[in-house]
Amino acid sequence: MAAVQAVESGAAPTKPAWRGGFGRLWTAAVVSRFGDALRTAALPLLAVTLTSDPFLIALVTACGYVPWLLFGLLGGALADRVDQRRAMWAVDTVRAALVAAFAVAVGTGHASLPLLMALAFTLTTLGTLFDNAATALLPSLVPTGALGSANARVMTGQQIAGSFLAAPLVPALLAVSVAAPYGVDAASYVLAATLVASLRPAAPERAPRKPGSTLRAETAEGLRALWADRTLRGLCAATTVCNIGMGALIATLVLDITGWLGAGQSGYATTVTAYGAGSAVGGLLAKPLARRCGRIGSVLLAGAVQTGCLVAIGSVRELWVTVAAMALFGVLGMVWNVNLATLVQERAPEAMLGRVSAAFRTLSVAGAPLGAVLGGAAAASWGLNTPALLASGLFVAAVAALIPARAA
Fold first, then answer.
1. Of 312, 310, 342, 309, which Cα lies nearest the Cα of 8?
2. How far apart are CA 105 and CA 119, in angstroms?
3. How far apart are CA 26 and CA 342, in angstroms?
4. Packing angle between helix 230-255 and helix 386-406, nearest 10 degrees?
5. What's the pLDDT at 231?
6. CA 369 to CA 63: how far, in whole Å?
7. Contacts of 298 (CB under 8 A, 6+ apart)
8. Of 3, 74, 110, 348, which has fewest CB within 10 angstroms of its CB?
9. Tell me, what DSSP letter sits at residue 18?
10. Cβ neighbours of residue 102 under 8 Å, at least 6 residues apart?
11. Nearest to 73 by CA among 357, 385, 271, 334
């Protein structure tokens, strides 16, 4: 735990070198995020052309989270067994083929809500292996003391690519073809897979598996390791509660912007861009805040400020207020995510990093599909602004859950 203690005491961590593996991994992550941002921005707009039912639109979002509940732990166990680099480029190759096929379906007029749900479910199922492998791979490419800076650079680059490059391009691509965003996304997966395949990371130190060891037993080891660490346990509980709120907000945000605010597609695009811009700024602030407040203190501060942002989004019927609140929400969301990822990488045993990461993600992501369904129901029953207010109450509970973890 020396790395954690160094950060908490204010020691400046080293920086990752751009040359070699980290630079290529960063580029792959940014390129892939660019394509994903095109798809995720275009999908809600496609969904509202197929149905006006808030609950059905929310189900599309929910399908993008459910695979973590079904396969997340398995993905982590596999990530600790296999060559993480090969797993990542193989998954990206398959995802490229799936998104390319979806682009053809959309372009030929065969899009439907079931198809959108199936795509979201399948891509996330593959992502359970990819994301856990990526988390476990990074420490083999950068020194332990540089993990905080490396995570911040990756996440900031992804946000810049998604918000400043991809989001503004969506209207232009849709003007060319309704299938164009998905075609570009497929191409981004191909490029990312090529970059990851070129990596030559140091092999992680893994003790030989016990004779007769099963994926089920290894998964249980990851859960026990997560539970035994008081800091990670508290952070996981808080993130789970937050993700219920985030699921409610994300699943209905397009309805809030285009319906309750009456701001149309341009208002939605502006809001998404503001959120991404805030996230990019948050990546720059994550490191100094961690030095000043500690990693858990930074997450606690982030959750408290985000609560106020959600109250503003759900109670003030002005587009500029929502845009400003989402920008600040993005700043603090990035602070939360960078410190969360770094804490998991620093505190989990190296040979179990995939499983601990999977246990954390699976338990915390479990809240998102529930939140998406609750958000859709709240929007349909009480108004399109109510999911944001529901989320604010949940963030209050999450901040309360973090307080014991700070004392650990």
1. 342
2. 11
3. 16
4. 170
5. 87
6. 7
7. 286, 289, 290, 335, 336, 339
8. 110
9. S
10. 115, 119, 182
11. 357
State CA 17 to chain mean position distance: 24
- Tell me the pLDDT tens digit for each residue of 39-96: 887 887 888 888 878 778 777 777 877 787 788 888 888 887 778 888 889 999 999 9
Distance from C-alpha of 376 to C-alpha of 389, rounded to nearest angstrom: 13
Q: Quickly list H helices, 180-318.
A: 180-197, 215-228, 230-255, 264-293, 295-315
Residue ranges in the chain modelled with pLDDT below 70: 1-14, 20, 201-213, 405-408
**259 vs 230: CA distance, rounded Å:** 43
For 212-223, write each residue's pLDDT tens digit: 567 777 788 888
Rounded Cα distance, 61 and 245, in Å: 13
Contact criterion met (CB below 8 Å) for 13 and 146? yes
Name which of 403, 405, 279, 390 is nearest 347 in CA terms. Answer: 405
For the four alpha carbons of 322, 324, 329 and 330, in that order, the dihedral sign comes to: positive
What is the 8-class DSSP label of residue 316? -
**Pick from 299, 273, 255, 278: nearest CA to 395:** 299
What is the C-alpha to C-alpha distance for residues 300 and 405, in angstroms, rounded to an integer? 10
Query: Which token pair is 138?
Result: 């990074």
Residue with tokens 């580029």: 27
Strand stretches in 66-188, DSSP E: none
From residue 244, how far is each of 47, 69, 247, 322, 356 by CA, in Å?
A: 22, 14, 5, 20, 21
CA distance 65 to 243: 10
Please give the structure tokens belonging to residue 77.
Answer: 């166990």
Residue 113 neighbours by CB under 8 Å, 6+ apart: 47, 50, 51, 56, 59, 60
Helix (H, G, I), strand (E, B) or coil at 382: helix
Length of the chain as a residue count: 408
Q: What share of the chain is helix, strand, coil (3-state, %, to 5)?
A: 85, 0, 15
Work out the angle between the directed axes of helices 54-63 and 367-382 (0-180°, nearest 10).
170
Q: Are 307 and 117 in contact (CB under 8 A)?
A: no
253-297 pLDDT, tens digit per residue, is 888 898 898 888 788 888 888 888 888 888 888 888 888 888 888
- Answer whether 178's CB lies under 8 Å from 38's CB: no
